[in-house]
Write a structure and sequence with these properties.
Layout lengths: L5 E10 L4 E8 L5 E8 L17 E6 L4 E6 L29
Antiparallel strand pairs: 1-2, 2-3, 4-5
């Protein structure tokens, strides 16, 4: 069975140059209505950790703004309980800010 949420209503909360924010009401598959806060932006980035064999942990999750399930980096505790990517730049492992090419 395909997971789906239906938009019932939409309210613009903020309109900016780079991002817009809206609050939607969505009908879940069981008929309940829930709130969804959506940030509209022109692009995105992901930070993820690879194990020593070059593998990445992904999870397939329904993403309301896209209206479908997508593969996303799995959120998990990292160093000192932070999620991956929250460690300050330049701390540990020779990390430096900048692009990474895989």
């Amino acid at each position: 069975m395909e997971f789906k949420e239906e938009m019932v209503s939409q309210e613009t909360v903020y309109e900016g140059v780079i991002v817009n924010v809206r609050r939607d009401k969505a009908r879940l598959m069981d008929g309940r209505i829930t709130n969804r806060e959506v940030v509209e932006h022109p692009g995105g980035v992901a930070v993820f950790a690879m194990d020593d064999q070059g593998r990445v942990a992904l999870v397939r999750q329904y993403r309301y703004p896209m209206g479908r399930r997508l593969w996303s980096p799995r959120r998990q505790a990292g160093a000192r309980g932070r999620i991956p990517g929250q460690r300050p730049a330049g701390t540990g492992g020779g990390d430096r800010p900048g692009p990474r090419h895989l």
